[in-house]
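Fold it.
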Amino acid sequence: MRPRVALAVAGVLLLASTLSFAQARTHELKLLPENVHWGYYDAALKPVLRIASGDTVRVETMIARGLPRLRAAGVKDDEIPESLKVVERTITERGPGAHPMTGPIFVEGAEPGDVLEVKIVAFEFLHPYGVSGFIPGSGTLPDEFPYVKFHLVRFDERAGTAQFAPGVTLKLAPFFGSIGVAPDPLVGRISSGPPGPHAGNLDNKELVAGSTLSIPVAVPGALVSFGDGHAMQGDGEATLTALETSLRGTVQITVRKGLHLKWPRGETPTHYIAMGLHTDLDEAAKLAVKEMIDFLVTDKKMNRDDAYILCSVAVDLHVTQLVDGTKGVHAMLAKSMFAR
C-alpha cells in the first residue's frame, strides 16, 4: 500500500473510532420508586432506561432489605437519605427476594445468545456507613445464632477504610452483590436471592471497580438490573450479610456477539474468573472447573487435557457464597502466566 493511501486509511479508521467514542453516552439512573423493582428478575418488566451498546450508566441502588436493617443497627432517621425513605414507603410489591433492584435497562442490539459485558468503572457511597449481622434461620450457623444482631460500621471514605471495632480496621472494597439480566420468559418471575445463568445475586467480591462481568443474554434488550450494594465482603458471606450499603455505581454496558456463554464469567485486571452455581457445593466446584476448561480451550486454544491439568496447578477455587440456596464457587486464573 502506498504511503498516502495508508495514511488516508488510517485517518478514516481514527475518525470512525473517534465518532464512535463521541456517540457513546452517559446516563443517570436515579434511586426513584419508578426505577426500582424489589426482590425479583422478570422478562415481563418494562425497561426504565434504553441505552446503546457501549454507553455508560451511573446507577443508584438501595441497601438490601431496606430501612429496617439500618434502624436495627442504630442508624438515626436523619442519617438516612430521603431517596431511600421514598422507595421504602412507595414500593409495596416485593419478593420473593430481599433486594431492591434498580432497572431494568434495555440495551439496544442485545439478543438471546449474545453476551452482555458489564464493565465496572467506579463506585460511590450514598451514605457513609454500612451494616452487617444475622437473623434467625439464616447464615451458615443458624443453630448457634438463633436471634437478631446487626452491627453498624461507619466509613472513612477519604481513607477508604472503616472501623469495625476498636483496633479492627477494614479496607473498603465496594461492589454490587447483584447484577443480572432477565431470565427466559418461559421461566417467569424468579427470586433475586439465588444466582443462576442470568447472574443475579452472585455476591462475588472480585467484581470491584476495574473488573468486568459477562452474562449470557436470554431476552431481547437483556434487561439488566443492579442492586445489593456491598462495601466489602469475605468469601462465603457466612452470616448471609456482607457489609451492606447503598451504592452509586458507574458501569459501561456493551453487547458482545458470537461468544455463546452458558454461565456468567468475570475478569479483573489480574485474573480470569469462571463461575459455578449449584445447590450442591461439590457440583458448583465441578461447574467452575468445567467453565475454566472451556475458557482455556476456546480463548487460549489449549487442548482439554492440558487445560484440565493447568486448572490443578494454577487455578484457585474460592467459595463465593454459601447462604443463598444456590451456592457459588469461582475459579481464578492469573493473567500473568500467559504471553498474550
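The helical segments are 3-23, 67-72, 82-90, 281-299, 304-314.
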